[in-house]
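Input/output pair, single chain:
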Amino acid sequence: MQVRVLGAAREVGRSAFQVNCDGASFLLDYGVELKKESLYPISVNPHEINAAIITHAHLDHSGNMPSLFVNGSTDVYATPPTFDLSRLLIEDMLRIQKSQLPYDFASVSKMMMHSREIKYKEKVERGNASFQLLESGHVLGGASVLVESENKRLFYTADINPRGSRMLREADLDFGEIDLIITESTYSQTNQMPRNESEEKFMEFAYEVLDRKGSLFVPAFSVERSQEIACVLKNAGFKHRIVMDGMAVKVNEIMLNYPEYLRDPKVFSDSVHQAIWIKGEKERKRALDEPAVIISPAGMLVGGSAVFYLQHLAADKKNGIALVSYQGEEHQEENFWTPAE
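Output:
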């Protein structure tokens, strides 16, 4: 079993690993690192790939997969919600950056024609090798990958959450003895605040802003983080107005179609439905008329409806902003914001 690192080595973004086994070659993720000039993994020949696997929908893991279908094809495996969410994010990226991407909408459609939906722990065999997906606790339908060949076992965690969240069950770590592990290490050198403490501080800040008749703007990733914030507010019994906007609304609709992947489908449904879903420009402008918690992508404030809310709320010091999503290095200084004096 040989492993080629194609991307995401000592960096965050463009995750991609090629695992060559006896008689089979697997591609584990094929992402893109979104920057002013986006970065892509090392190219591979799709005709040499027996199976490509998307662990979860975030673009740093899925965003370059359609490039395999520009001049070739292969089978692509993922859970059903991962395919739905990946297509939503990839096509949105195409609409925004069409001229900059190495593929087009036709490539995405071709990828979906070659999609193969599988469930957790469903073993897929190719030659003398096999792989299966295990629940990762990160993003609806998200998975880790266990590859087995010639008595060797490799475990690729992708993004993983051993504790789970209010939305999702904890990661399935029942994979037995392994020979090699490939794991995300984004936060490996940092001390993370305990989850209950971070939720308490978030809620204290939310009440502080709303008590002074301001609005709290929460830019959050459209997939998972926006919905998780809605679950946190519901769990805390938050009584003020909540607004969800942008692609997060479309993601809500997709997630509601897959209750079996949620920790508690009723809690999730109640959480997202407590919010007002914005679906047009007029509704977006009306959302600013009264104090509220406004949840909207993009999580790094690089586009989407988040820019609209930032422009309208940043100038008034009674408002607040809570950055709850990972901030890429290039965006941290750009996104630093303090209320007007």
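DSSP finds ten helices and 16 strands in the chain. The two ends are 60 Å apart (CA to CA).
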